[in-house]
Amino acid sequence: MALIEAKNLTFTYAGREKPSIEDINLSIDRGEFVILTGPSGCGKTTLCRCFNGLIPHFYNGELKGEVIVAGLKVDEHPTYELACHVGMVFQNPENQLFALSVEKDVAFGLENLGLPREEIRKRVDWAMKMTGIYELRERAPYELSGGQQQRVAIASILAMQSEVMVLDEPTSFLDPLGAKQIFDVIYRLNRELGITVILVEHRLDLAANYATRVIVMNDGKIVMDGPPKKILSSEKAKLIGIGIPKATRLYQILKNDGIPLRRNKTPITPKEVAELIVEAFNHD
């Protein structure tokens, strides 16, 4: 059984005539690492708000169809209950961090659930160690770098032991090294703990290497869905205007120029395309 299911899902924000998402049918299994991408305004964030109950419980509008998460119909269960299954990390971590120390921020959600103090301590320490911020536990969040703040936001979701982690462009304020460090943390949580990851991301040069699946949205609809190499090498993806990895673009240019690249698998990382180039020249 799928962990997340959307059936004929359409949502129109109050005061608008055109739906932000329209006729979405989607199934995501436990343990998948999914990239959700597409042009700005295509409905990615709106779809994610449906997964954790912000739609329809917080954002007003007309909802048609249904979303089922961990067997729960989203419109029939409150957001605090859904938060135990789906955690969301926002684009700007400062929007989620407000306590006077890292460990208090990580503990906030657990305290709201009324868990015993011993259980809170155990989960908070575990989440901070998993995300590599245990040594920062007594620091104030505003003293941290952007990458460190994003780790704190991830740890606060991890401590809730949610089955699904939704991340809405979590690296948009980070440099490439900081972005890679965040992706490494997310990938580790996905591989070691089986957490289902839904990553909204434009910068696919780094992110595509971690995903098992890429979903492309355009104009409120899902227009492509499949393995990263297949989606990112397609002509349709280029026409939609998503951020094709530079390694993939280089591979396509070299092939069009007649360079004898022997493998048919499309590269999505610099390492993969470098290996193809070396192989081609060694063959000559």
- Order of adjacent strands in the largest pleated sheet: 6-7-8-3-9-10
The tally of helices reads: 12
Main structural class? alpha/beta
Mind summarizing the main beta sheet? 6 strands, mixed
The low-pLDDT segments are none
Strand residues, percent: 15-25%
Distance between the termini: 50 Å
The count of strands amounts to 10
The whole-angstrom Rg is 20 Å
Mean pLDDT across all amino acids: 89
Global morphology: globular
Helix content: 25-40%
The SSE order reads: EEEHHEEHEHHHEHEHEEHHHH
Q: Explain this structure to me?
A:
The chain is α/β, with parallel strands linked by helices. 39% of the residues lie in helices and 21% in strands. The radius of gyration is 20 Å and the shape is globular. The mean pLDDT is 89.
Fill in the keyword field for this structure.
284 residues, alpha/beta, 4-stranded antiparallel β-sheet, 12 helices, 10 strands, globular
Can you lay out the helices and strands and say which pair or pack?
Layout: E1 4-13, E2 21-28, E3 33-37, H1 44-51, H2 54-57, E4 61-69, E5 72-73, H3 79-82, E6 86-89, H4 102-112, H5 117-130, H6 146-158, E7 164-168, H7 176-193, E8 196-200, H8 204-207, E9 213-218, E10 221-226, H9 228-232, H10 235-240, H11 246-256, H12 270-283
Helix pairs in contact: 4-5, 4-6, 5-6, 6-7
